[in-house]
Amino acid sequence: MFDNNTKIGIEKIIDFIVAFISVLLIAFVEDNPSNLPLVGTALIVVSIYVMIRGRKNKMLFFLLFIISMINISIGVYDCLLEGVDVSAWQLSGLRATKYNTITAKGVLLFVTMFNLFIKDDVLKNEKKSNFDELRINNTLISYMGVLVMYVVLVYALISQLLTRNLGNYQSVSSPIFEYCVIVLCVSWYYSKNNLVVDWLILLYVFFYSIIFLAIGDRSSVFMYLLMLYLLYFQKKFTMWAVLGFSLIGIFCANIIGIMRSAGAFNFSEIISMATSRGLYVDTFSWSYYAGIAITALAHTVDSKIPFCLAYILSFIGIKNDFSSFTVFALNYNGLYNNGGGFCSPYLYMCGGYLGIVVGAVFIAFVINIFFSNNRPFNSIYQAVIVAMSLRWYLYNPVTLFRGILFLMPLLLIACRLFDNTMRSNDTQSRG
């Protein structure tokens, strides 16, 4: 009915209309908790639209699906239903303030701007990458990576499991555990036809899952399981598989959460409670509440500049009291939270709504680079960005800026140089 250029033009017009309506809503709807259902409805609609737009690029669709499912859960349970199943102190606390509405608006603004700046050729990239065919073999690199993973696993056992109160929700306390996802992916890439490394990776994820489920960190476990799915089952990748994987993940997350807090409930009651929750995940809701605390902090401090500078410096490992917004909010402003915060409140803390726009445009730029083609290193980045979205989007974008965009290139460059040197020496010795 329409040629390709006409379709692209129509889609662009729709994008601008969606963005225009969202900006109008953010600008003119009062920051009153009574307006949360309106903001939540807009967030749900825009998130579904964004997810549908990316359906042709399979890896991008997976990323947009995760972001959209998180947004939809927040839109329904934290906005439309105004915090169903949350603690009473939350309902009478920050959720009852204007900062709740501002935070929801920030999430809406981020996903709107993010969608607006993703290129059409990236959205239309239908070529599937066969991850297994991209792998190469370097036994030394792959085994060194596996060794690092298991050393970190032992450290996790000692520092996390043996020193924790296992009855409470707790997130990973050190980025080294989540960054091991990158090491896992690189080790896998350099282990073509090496079944030993494949099995060592599977065992690592199994033991990691036991340790971190025991301390209540479900998101990091699902991050690793998602990475395994992307690396080993990518050939079976379909939209229905993504939907099934996500629904099963949400259901299992709720079962684990209920079992951890239910105590005496029997299994049938736990299943019934998990089913009744639907798409609600308490991890999403807790992280969103931390985002409200960050938004409140942004409105109560005299100057946001020290926080913004400290946050940027944390990308290269330089930290001070201002680096962690959630910790500062809790310790110095009495804004209780349990960590996390979503991507957009961190950007809001650094620059208000303009900071969210700049951050969303930059992240869209990153996506355009790595999801435009399926070259080997781009494919590795795609897998890591998708798997770690459960950290950088749901918890803190520092995972993207420091882990994926700063540390990961250094690791890949070092491995490439080491691999090239080994191959060059091998060629010379044969010659």
UniProtKB/TrEMBL annotation:
<feature type="transmembrane region" description="Helical">
    <location>
        <begin position="237"/>
        <end position="259"/>
    </location>
</feature>
<keyword id="KW-1133">Transmembrane helix</keyword>
<feature type="transmembrane region" description="Helical">
    <location>
        <begin position="346"/>
        <end position="371"/>
    </location>
</feature>
<feature type="transmembrane region" description="Helical">
    <location>
        <begin position="59"/>
        <end position="77"/>
    </location>
</feature>
<feature type="transmembrane region" description="Helical">
    <location>
        <begin position="35"/>
        <end position="52"/>
    </location>
</feature>
<feature type="transmembrane region" description="Helical">
    <location>
        <begin position="97"/>
        <end position="118"/>
    </location>
</feature>
<feature type="transmembrane region" description="Helical">
    <location>
        <begin position="196"/>
        <end position="216"/>
    </location>
</feature>
<feature type="transmembrane region" description="Helical">
    <location>
        <begin position="400"/>
        <end position="418"/>
    </location>
</feature>
<feature type="transmembrane region" description="Helical">
    <location>
        <begin position="12"/>
        <end position="29"/>
    </location>
</feature>
<keyword id="KW-0472">Membrane</keyword>
<protein>
    <recommendedName>
        <fullName>O-antigen polysaccharide polymerase Wzy</fullName>
    </recommendedName>
</protein>
<keyword id="KW-0812">Transmembrane</keyword>
<feature type="transmembrane region" description="Helical">
    <location>
        <begin position="310"/>
        <end position="334"/>
    </location>
</feature>
<feature type="transmembrane region" description="Helical">
    <location>
        <begin position="139"/>
        <end position="158"/>
    </location>
</feature>
<feature type="transmembrane region" description="Helical">
    <location>
        <begin position="279"/>
        <end position="298"/>
    </location>
</feature>
